[in-house]
Amino acid sequence: MTLTVKRINRFCLLACAPFIGLVIWLLAADLSITLPDSAFPKQALSDVNVPADTGKLTDGLDSAKQKALVTAKSLKKSIALYTATGRSMNAIVTLSDSQADRPYRIYDRRITLKIGSPAQQIQSDNIRAQLFTIHAQYFSGYALKVKLKTPDAMKMVLGQDKNGGAETTLAAARRYGAIAGVNAGGFADDGGKRYPLSTTVMNGSYLNGFDPSFKDLFFVGLNDNLELIGGKYSSREQLDKQNPKFGASFVPVLLQNGRTSTIPSKWQTSPLRAPRTVVANYKDNQLLFLVIDGRNENGSSGATLEEVQILLQRFGAIDGYNLDGGGSSTLVFNGRVVNHPSDGRLRPVPTHFLFFK
What we know:
about 25% strand
């Protein structure tokens, strides 16, 4: 049994020996196998499935790129042109502003030269106030030319801030911190109190109601547009149409539209000469106040109303109104009384025009 198995094993080994040797030789040899080109069949480029719009898409991209470059250059030019135009427009606006202001400056220079050179001046964003001296044959005095720039530049106040109260213009100016002040309308004494004469407007309201103008009385004040308004008014509706902001009453009207008004006979001689306070305007809405000195109120010094009319016309004023004069005439400028009140002391009055820096 054992012998038979040995014989079978030997037979199998002899039969497999050649195959085992071939395998060992193949493993030991460095063999490479090269396949011929025919083993890899080539596909023609025309046979490749390329989308039909690829060429058009490429051309479109090239065109878009060129347009983008052109647009970028155009934008750069536009930006440069816009910047240059902006500079030019700013220069034009600056020049236009200076040229627009030129007629005013020319007009202001012309009317200022008619008065003279300012002795003092106060200027701010609110106001420009110029003080001039006046010298004539029979009197001397002062002119105050005022350009109101804002509604806060001027107001009218009551003496001691109450109806029937009175105080000097200097006291009122100091109490309100005003840079300048001028006495305003006429008054009437009653029971130890001093009341404004006739129609008086404070902060857009009538102090004692409306009184139709009678005899030679007039109303003068400012409206909401900082314009001088004045004259005779027969009804409240007539005055309301001019939107009065504040104002007072006195006599008489001196100048309208550059022409002198007839002086009432009573005021031609009673008194002939006296200290005067006058308010007037220019066509550019600047205000002009004249305060004329006089040694006393008996007519031996001061100005006649006709002389005041001549001054107003000479100074180029448009409308002019006589305010309370005599011992009431007071001009405060920069904290002091610049004129010489004829009473020898300051007179308390019920209304004052004040100016603010």
